[in-house]
Amino acid sequence: MSEKIQNVLPDLSVVVLCYRSGILAYEFVDELTKLMSERVPNDYELVLVGNYHQGSDDPTPQIVQEISRCSKNIIAVTLPKEGMMGWDMRSGLNAATGMHIAVIDGDKQMPIEDLVRVYEFLKKGQYDLVKTYRITRGDGLWRKTVSFVYNLLFKILFPGLKSKDINSKPKVFTRKAFNKFDLKNDDWFIDAEMMIQARRYHFKIGEIPTHFLGLGGRRPSFVRFPAILQFLKNMFVYRFKETMYRKIKS
């Protein structure tokens, strides 16, 4: 892992999840850097998370390291994986130094412009956390159905959680909010864990609409049926945890 120390902490750190992005990382970072330079000039950093499975032929770690060497605003996190997406996200969040922190997938399924939109919306409304919700989706019927059921179950199990689309990114939150999080999840449930804890701490949450583009012929989604079963298990486990948390606090 390579890190760059800046004299002044950036206002915005963007954690980009690049797992197995390969050469697509060049294009994504180039577009993101141009956007940030125009809208958040000289006050941002990018944290490129290119963690890898030992023994794999994934070129992503070398690619994000190469990208980071070209800019003082870019940090590369390239560690042998000890978990799935949640572990990757946590490793990136821990490397971020900004007063505000954003998380976005590096596969271009979401419009890159959303990143600045949620960031500006957060600052204007003095929110603790702002995210998108998908009003159109470019993926298949199966994923749409799973997402609908998933979000419906969340509304039932976690009433009062004001979110239309739990997993949608980008998510942007303040440093103060991040310091309250106690994220433990190592798999695909980490977005939900974050929102459950935002509910626990009564964060001021904002959402803005977006159009989900889908992968458009790129690498397939890594979410499979076992991951869906794990989602369901986690929902009930975290429901129990929240019940116990409230009993302790009362």
Write a compact overview of the structure shown:
By secondary structure, the protein is an alpha/beta fold.
Fold and architecture overview:
- The protein is of the alpha/beta class and 250 residues long.
- The protein has a single domain, classed as Alpha-Beta Complex (Spore Coat Polysaccharide Biosynthesis Protein SpsA, Chain A).
- It is 43% helix and 17% strand.
- The chain contains 8 helices and 7 strands.
- The chain has a 7-stranded mixed beta sheet, with helices on both faces.
- Strand 1, helix 1 and strand 2 form a beta-alpha-beta unit.
- Helix 5 packs parallel to helix 8.
Structural class: alpha/beta
H/E element string? EHEHEHEHEHEHHEH
Mass-distribution shape: globular
Portion of residues within helices: 40-55%
Task: Report on the biggest sheet.
Answer: 7 strands, mixed
Layout: helices, strands, pairs:
Layout: E1 12-17, H1 24-39, E2 44-49, H2 60-68, E3 74-77, H3 85-95, E4 100-105, H4 113-125, E5 129-137, H5 141-157, E6 171-174, H6 175-180, H7 190-200, E7 205-212, H8 225-249
Helix pairs in contact: 5-8
Descriptive key words:
single chain, 250 residues, alpha/beta, Spore Coat Polysaccharide Biosynthesis Protein SpsA, Chain A, 7-stranded mixed beta sheet, 8 helices
